[in-house]
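Deliverable D5.2: sample structural annotation.
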Amino acid sequence: MAEVIGKVGPFTPRSAAGGTHFDALVRSIVYQQLSGKAAATIHGRVRALFSEDTPLPPQIFATEHDVLRSAGLSNQKASYLRNLAEHTLNGSLPIESLHELGDEAIIEALTQVKGIGRWSAQMFLMFRLGRLNVLPDLDLGVQKGIQVAYRMRKLPKPQKVLETGAKWAPYRTVGAWYMWRVLELPPGSFAGPRPR
């Protein structure tokens, strides 16, 4: 890891603290599997459906499926947004106090919502809440970064990612950030045998 830090430079964290947790989750669902520009356009259209800049859970829940679709959302994403609103309204997702829970409790709460899997919940922990000890073992970028930095022949499976990242605790988020940055370095930056 010392070699990685030396080549990448200092850790520069970023978290999105603006808006509400609900806004952040709406954005996360809209942006899934889309390029940034297309996702931003659709997200803007979704927000424009409502009088306020940031739609509230009761507003989304009360909005007809076809109206949400008219903003450019897929069938699935429109249903995911309504499911998020439903869980928020019935109290099964404690949206206002999520930040008070532990990491695993947050993941458990978020993954009950359709369209929010473990990876999305981990991204919420890292980039919304700024939690420092999260390791997204399913993230392809982290897997590839570990393969490059640790000079592995094969892409590491999630279990190997967890084993490698265990040494980074209690700053596994920082380790993951460095693995993403490794992929931005020129090819061959980590050529040769692994240093001892």
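Annotation notes: Residues 75-89 form the longest helix (15 residues). Residues 136-182 form one domain.
The annotation will be released with the project's public dataset once the embargo ends.
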